[in-house]
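[Solved] Which block belongs to which protein?

Original post:
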Amino acid sequence: MKKIFGILFCSTIILTGCSKDYLDTDLKSTINQEQIDSSPAALQGLVNGVYTSLHTYGLSESSTHEAWGHKAVLSAMDMMSNDMLNNRASWFSAFYNYTGRIQTSVRTTMIWNTYFQQIRAINTVIASIEKTGVTPQNKAIYGQALALRGYMHFMLARVFGPTYVGHLNADCIPVYTEVTLVGKTRSNVDTVYKQIVKDLTSSLPYLVGYTRENKEKVDTRVAKAFLAEVYLEMGNYAGAATMAHDARTGITQPTQAQWLDGFYDLEASPDAIWGGIISEATTSFVASFFAHFDNTDPNGYAVVFNKLIDRRLYDAMPATDYRKKAFQSANNAAPYNGVDGVSLPKYASLKFIDKSIGQGGDYIYMRASEMYYIEAEGLAKSGNEAGAKAVLAEITQLRNPAYTVTASGSALIDEIILQKRIELWGEGYAWTDMKRLGVGLLRDYPGTNHNLAAGRINIPAGDLRFTFQVPQAEILANPNVTQNP
C-alpha cells in the first residue's frame, strides 16, 4: 500500500441516470476536450480517475455505507451466496435476504452506477483516441480503456441479465460504446457478450509491452484474466483454460503466512493481480470493505455484525488445510477471545484483517489463484481430465499438503468448484458461479448456522430472484429501457 495521487475525473464527468446530464461529457473542469485529445497524460489521468472511482465511497449511491465501488459489488454478490452470512442484521442484509434486487432498492442503483458511470468516462477516452489515432504514446491507455469497458459491461451483464448459455436472445443490458446523450435499449445476451469479447480481445495487442507502475492498472495479465472469466461464463471452456493459464503464469503463490496475513496489502500479496490502492487520502473509514468484513476491528461494523462462513463449507475443509485457520473454530476461541473487546462466534471470518495502522487496507479485486480453478474447470469440461486434476492438485496441495484428487466426471467439476469456494470465500465469486452453474440457494437446512430468519431462505436455481431489476431511476429517466420481472 503506497500513497498515490491520481486525477479523479469520473465523478465530475458523468452523473447518474440516463438523462442528458448523465451523458454530458463536456467537462466543466480544468481540462477541456482539446487538451484531452492532444495529451496522453490527460488521457491517462482520466483513466486513473476511473481506477480511483472504482474504490471511492458515495459516487454510485450516497445514501448507503455499502457503496464503495467495485469491491462492494463483489462483496454484495458473496452475501447472496450459500457461503457467507450476516450474524446480525445490518448493512448488506438487503443483499443477504434478496430484497436488494428490486427496482426501488438503492442497491440496484449502487451496482448500476458503479459501472455505467465509469463506462461513460471510459468512452470519452476511447472516442478521443479513435478520433486522433492510436500512437505509441497512447496505445496502452487505449488498451486499458477497452479492457475496462469490456469488464464493466460483463459485471453488469452478470447482475442484470440472465446467464449466457441458453439465453442468447434474452434481454440483458444496454451497451454503450460511444459518447451519447440518448439512453439505449437493452441488447440481447448474445449482442452484449460479443461486444465484451470484442473489447477484451482488442485490448490485448495495445497492452503488449506495457509495464504498469502498480497493480491498480490493467495490463495484459489482467485483461486475460477478464477474458478467462468471460469465456467460462460463455461455455468457451478451452478458451477459458488458455486465458486463465496465461494470466497466472509467472505469478508466485503466497506462503501460508502470506495467505493468512489479512488480504489488506495489494502490492505485498504475491498472487494479487488487480485491485484498488487505498491511502490516507482515499480511505473511507466505516464506509469501506474492512469496516464491514474485518471482524477483528473494534471500530468497524463487522465486530458487532459479524460475517461468518457457512458451516457446510467450513466442515468441508480438513484440519490439514491451513485455510481453515481463517475462520473461528469455536465461540470465543483464540486468537480473538475478548482481546481488545473483540469476542467472536464460531465460524466468524478471520480472513480479512486490516493491518495498515489507520491508512486503510487495499482492495484486492482479483488474484491469480482464481485462474487455477478456471483453468481446471475449463480443462475438465473440454475433455482433459488429467490436465484438470493436475492443475487442481497443484494449487490445493499448497494449501493442504495431504490433498489428492480422486474424483472424475461430474464429481471432479464439483470438487473444482468446492476448492474454488474455499479459496475465494469473501472475494466475490460464489454467487455468480451459483447462477452460472444452476445451483440454488439452500440456507434452511438441518443444523444451519444461518440464524437470521430473513436470510435463512431457499431459492431454486433459475429463479427470477437471481437477476436484479433495473433501477427505478433508470426506468424513469430512460424510456427506451425495459424492466426485469
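(Second protein starts here: sequence line, then its C-alpha cells.)
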Amino acid sequence: MSVQGSILVADDDAAIRTVLNQALSRVGHHVRVTSNAATLWRWVSAGEGDLVITDVVMPDENAFDMLPRIRKLRPDLPVIVMSAQNTFMTAIRASEVGAYEYLPKPFDLTELLGIVGRALAEPKGKPAQPRASEQPESMPLIGRSPAMQDIYRMLARMMQTDLTVMITGESGTGKELVARALHEFGRRRNGPFVAINMAAIPRDLIESELFGHEKGAFTGAQHRSSGRFEQAEGGTLFLDEIGDMPMEAQTRLLRVLQQGEYTTVGGRTPIKTDVRIVAATNKDLRALINQGLFREDLFYRLNVVPLRLPPLRERVEDIPDLVRHFFAEAEKEGLQSKRIDKGGLGVMMQYSWPGNVRELENLVRRLAALYPQDVITEEIIASELRGATSIETPRTGEGLPEDMPLGQAVEQYLQRHFRSFGTALPPPGLYHRIIAEVEYPLVLAALAATQGNQIRAAELLGLNRNTLRKKIRELGVDVYRASKHPSGEPVSG
C-alpha cells in the first residue's frame, strides 16, 4: 500500500510544475507548487510538507545553497533535486549537500513516483551530514547521455561507502577515471590511490607486487619491499585487468578479502589491511569462470557493486562535449584553440569508435597539433577516420562479416574454442556455458532496443516478464533506463 503525503514542488518552469502536480495528485498526494526558492523556504520553515522536489537552479536562489539550511532545520525532510545541467559534479554536489535523490532532466515520471514512494515510506532516521566543499573542482567524467546519468547517480550513492566495486567495460571507456573519481570524491580521498595493472606484470611477480616480499624471499630479493596493499593503506587499491590475474594470486587475494589481512612473500606475520578495493576488467569474467580461469568465489567478493561503462558507440550524443573537453585540455598545453564543424561532428557520431573515448581523445589531440585551421571540417574528419573502422559499416565482431549468419559465427567460435585446448577437451558443461554466453547479449540487446522497458523486452523475446527478470538477475545484465515520460515524450525543463 502506497504512502500518501504532502509534497512541496519548486521549479520555475510552469510545464514541469503542471506535470508534477498532476502526476503526484493522481496517486493521492497533496501537492503545493511554487516558482521560487523563497516561497519554498517559507513553507519548509512553517513545518509544511513531508517531502520536497526542487530544481537546482531557481530564479532567486540555488537549491544547493538552500538545502543545508533545510537539513539543519528539518533533518528528516527528504529532498529530491532535479537539474538540467546533468554533469557528474551535479550528482556529486547533490549527494554532498544531503539530497535524498538526484534526477537529471529530462526525467522519467514513473521513476520519480517510485522514489517519492520510497522516501515517504522510509523510517525517519539520522540523515547523512552534508560535507564541506573539500572536493576537487575538476570534472573527471564527461557526458550528459542517459547512460552516463545512470553512472553519475550510482557513483554519487557510493561515495560515502567502502563497498567493493567491479567496473566492466571495453578498453578505452575510462575505467580508471571512474576508479579515481570514486577515490577522490569519497571518504578515503585523503589516503593514497594506488593502481596496479595485472596484465602488465609478469605472472611470477604479481604476488610480490601485491603483497610485498621479505629480504631473501626469492632470488634477487636483496631487501624488503612493500606491496601495493601496504602502499594503499587507508586509501583505495585499483586492480585493473583483474581477469588477467593468475589463479594462485586469485587465491591469495580472496583470502585477503575474507580475512582482512595478508602476509608478504617469504613472511610469516599477518598484516592487517584497510583498503577499499576497486577492480576493473574488459573481459567476461563469467565466461572465464566457466573455463576454469577465474575463481567464482572471488568474483562474488569483487562484484559487490557492478558498474558497466558503456562503449562510446552507445553514447554518441556525448561526443560534442568530449571533443570540446579534449580541445580545451590541448589548449591548456599551449596548442591553438580549435573546433569541429557540424558536418565533422556528424561523421564522428556515425563512426563505431572501437578504441572508445581513448581513441577519440587521441584523434582530437592529433587534430589540435597537426592542423593549422581553427575549424576542422567534415572532409578532414572523414580523412582521419578512413582506414580505421568503416563509418558506413560499424565493426560487429572480431573479423566477422556483418551479414554472417549467427549459426555460422557460433560454429567458428566453437572451432576456435576447441582448438585452444589442443588435443584435450574443454571442461564439462559446455552446453550450458555456450547458452549462457548467447543469452547475455540477447537479453541486453532486447533491453537496449526497448530502452529498458522490461514488459516490451519480454514480449520481444517471447518470455514471461518474471522469467526475464530472473534472467536479468542471474546473468547480471545492466538494465538500460531511458529518461522518458510515460507518454513517450521526454520530460524536460
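Accepted answer:
You had them paired correctly. Confirming on the second one: The longest strand covers residues 276-281.
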